[in-house]
Write a structure and sequence with these properties.
Blueprint: H1 5-8, H2 13-18, H3 25-29, E1 33-36, H4 46-50, E2 56-57, E3 67-68, E4 88-92, E5 99-105, E6 117-121, E7 127-137, E8 147-153, E9 162-163
Antiparallel strand pairs: 1-4, 2-3, 4-5, 5-8, 6-7, 6-9, 7-8
The protein binds iron/sulfur cluster (SF4) (2 copies).
One iron/sulfur cluster binds near residues 83 and 85.
Length: about 170
């Protein structure tokens, strides 16, 4: 079966490896870092201006893929909500011995609660593990794109990119 965004709507491992916004294994080990999963040459560039540390470059033409300068990136997550394609995440492999933290945009309601255990899903929307909500950033600067930080077992850090939408309060236990 053909794999990749064009055929399945889901970015493939090969596409990720070629993506200039994807950090190296060495950089992942050093602490929080942006993961820019943007592989289509579309005319778009707000992420470039959003980074306060100049760690994202697109330049000219605007259809260039965003290139992450992993040395400049501090993993602050400011760029996450700037992306209209919801293609930017941060991953922190240094959070603890057993857990990593993945931060992602989440444009659904209701929002989960801090400390809540939730089902974590991969890029295909399949549940792969359970995570714990650590933080939700929902400031005006984010323009209605809350950023959720989720602690998950380390082995799922390269796969988990969102959570199952929490049910309404009556259904939640
Ligand atoms: S995580 Fe922060 S430092 Fe890294 S690219 Fe995004 S905005 Fe820049
Ligand atoms: S803002 Fe998002 S979609 Fe646009 S170039 Fe940056 S990563 Fe790609």
């Amino acid at each position: 079966m053909n794999k990749g965004l064009k055929f399945t709507g889901v970015i493939s491992e090969e596409e990720l490896k070629r993506c200039p916004g994807y950090p190296s294994e060495e950089r992942f080990k050093k602490g929080p870092v942006a993961v820019i999963e943007c592989i289509q040459e579309i005319p778009c560039n707000p992420c470039e201006a959003a980074c306060p540390f100049g760690a994202i470059e697109i330049g000219e033409p605007i259809t260039n893929l965003p290139v992450l300068d992993e040395k400049k990136c501090r993993g602050c997550g400011v760029c996450i909500s700037s992306c209209p394609g919801l293609a930017i995440f941060t991953v922190d492999m240094s959070y603890s011995k057993t857990e990593a933290v993945v931060s992602f945009p989440f444009e659904y309601l209701p929002l989960p609660k801090i400390g809540e255990k939730v089902k974590a899903v991969n890029r295909e929307g399949r549940i792969v593990t359970v995570g714990r909500i650590l933080k939700i950033k929902n400031s005006l600067k984010n323009d209605h794109t809350p950023i959720i930080s989720l602690a998950i077992p380390k082995k799922w850090a390269a796969e988990v990119r969102s959570i199952v939408i929490p049910q309404n309060k009556k259904e939640r236990k």
